[in-house]
């Protein structure tokens, strides 16, 4: 299994209504130094129906300004549709919605 496949396998596991950080995904995929690679992998997500990359945010809970499937507003709306709460216009409440797998 290559690195992107490992990343996709982890992202598939993020539950509805939860988010994970790029660093968390990198760690769970086997290398905590691959946070940027996680971003690259999600940008070229081959199966957005089954790999919920919109559930990945940065370490501060901020959504991606360059969300691959329509911009930041689309990612925000997708997260809100799952009940994810924000502490400001583009920052997820990580205390409440962070997936705790691997922490």
Give a quick set of tags describing it.
about 100 residues, mainly alpha, two-stranded parallel ribbon, 5 helices, about 40% helix
Task: Provide an overview of this structure.
The chain is mostly helical and 103 residues long. It is 39% helix and 9% strand. It contains five helices and four strands, in the order H-E-H-H-E-H-E-E-H. It has helices at residues 3-12, 22-28, 35-43, 72-81, 94-97; strands at residues 20-21, 56-57, 86-88, 91-92. A two-stranded parallel sheet has the order 1-2. Strands 3-4 form a two-stranded antiparallel sheet. A hairpin with a 2-residue loop joins strand 3 (86-88) and strand 4 (91-92). Helix 2 packs across helix 3. The longest helix is centred in the N-terminal third of the chain and has 10 residues, at 3-12. It is globular. It starts with a helix and ends in a 6-residue tail after the last helix.
User: How do the SSEs run, as a string of H and E?
Assistant: HEHHEHEEH
User: How would a textbook summarize the main sheet?
Assistant: 2 strands, parallel
Mean pLDDT: 92
Question: What percent of residues adopt helix (DSSP H or I)?
Answer: 25-40%
| Overall geometry | globular
| Strand elements, count | 4
Strand arrangement within the widest β-sheet reads 1-2
Low-confidence stretches: none
From the alpha carbons, calculate the radius of gyration and give it in angstroms.
12 Å
Counting copies of identical and different chains, the oligomeric state is single chain
**Number of helices, where a helix is a run of at least 4 consecutive DSSP H or I residues:** 5
């Amino acid at each position: 299994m290559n690195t992107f496949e490992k990343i996709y396998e982890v992202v598939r596991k993020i539950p509805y209504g939860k988010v994970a950080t790029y660093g968390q995904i990198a760690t769970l995929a086997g290398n905590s130094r691959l946070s940027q690679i996680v971003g690259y992998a999600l940008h070229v997500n081959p199966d957005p129906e089954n790999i919920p990359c919109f559930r990945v945010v940065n370490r501060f809970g901020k959504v991606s300004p360059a969300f691959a499937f329509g911009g930041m507003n689309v990612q925000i709306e997708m997260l809100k549709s799952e009940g994810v709460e924000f502490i400001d216009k583009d920052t997820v409440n990580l205390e409440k919605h962070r997936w705790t797998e691997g922490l």
